[in-house]
Amino acid sequence: MVQSPERRSISVVTPVYNGEASIAELCRRLEEVLPRISTQYEVIFVNDGSRDRSWETISELSSRSPMVRGLNLMRNYGQHNALLCGIRAAKYEVIVTMDDDLQHSPEEIPRLLARLEEGFDVVYGVPKTE
Predict the structure, then answer these.
(1) CA distance 103 to 66
(2) How far is CA 1 from CA 117, 119, 124, in A?
(3) Spatial distance between the Cα atoms of 92 and 129, rounded to a whole number of angstroms
(4) How does the average pLDDT of the chain come out, rounded?
(5) Is the CB of residue 94 less than 8 Å from the CB of residue 2?
(6) Which of 47, 97, 112, 122 gives the lowest tally of CB atoms within 10 Å of its CB?
């Protein structure tokens, strides 16, 4: 039996590299969207050796919300390795990956989940070109 998107538990994984200026806003938007579509969710920020105050921001966000987790890599390993680290740490089967710079809109997550319900194993969002 396929679960409806409203019942699915969701992990959102975001690699962070010098994202201090944007991750608080990303977290705020995720905390608006995720409770509307899931009763269980987590947001995992993976600090990939940032040179700014990203890790301090992630630590602050996780101290304010039990749904936010942070992983701090020793150095910059690259976006794909940071994503893999977050995916391996994810609690839930449905994993949404997002960039830290708000290039991916959290408000589009329900649309991605709706496509999963159509039977796809993987769903990928592509920005509109005009």
Answers:
(1) 25
(2) 11, 11, 23
(3) 32
(4) 92
(5) no
(6) 122
User: Three-state SS for 109?
Assistant: helix
Given a contact cutoff of 8 angstroms between Cβ atoms, the answer to whether 25 and 98 are in contact is no
CB-based contacts of 100, cutoff 8 Å, min separation 6:
14, 15, 16, 17, 19, 22, 23, 26, 45, 54
pLDDT at residue number 2:
46
- Helix axis angle for 109-116 and 23-37, nearest 10°, is 40
Mean pLDDT is lowest, of 6-10, 11-15, 36-40, 103-107, for 6-10
DSSP class of residue 107?
Answer: G
Give the mean pLDDT of 34-40: 94
Give the C-alpha separation, 19 to 41, whole Å.
Answer: 22
Mean pLDDT confidence for 42-46:
98
What's the whole-number mean pLDDT along residues 70-99?
97
* Cβ contact 24:39 at 8 Å: no
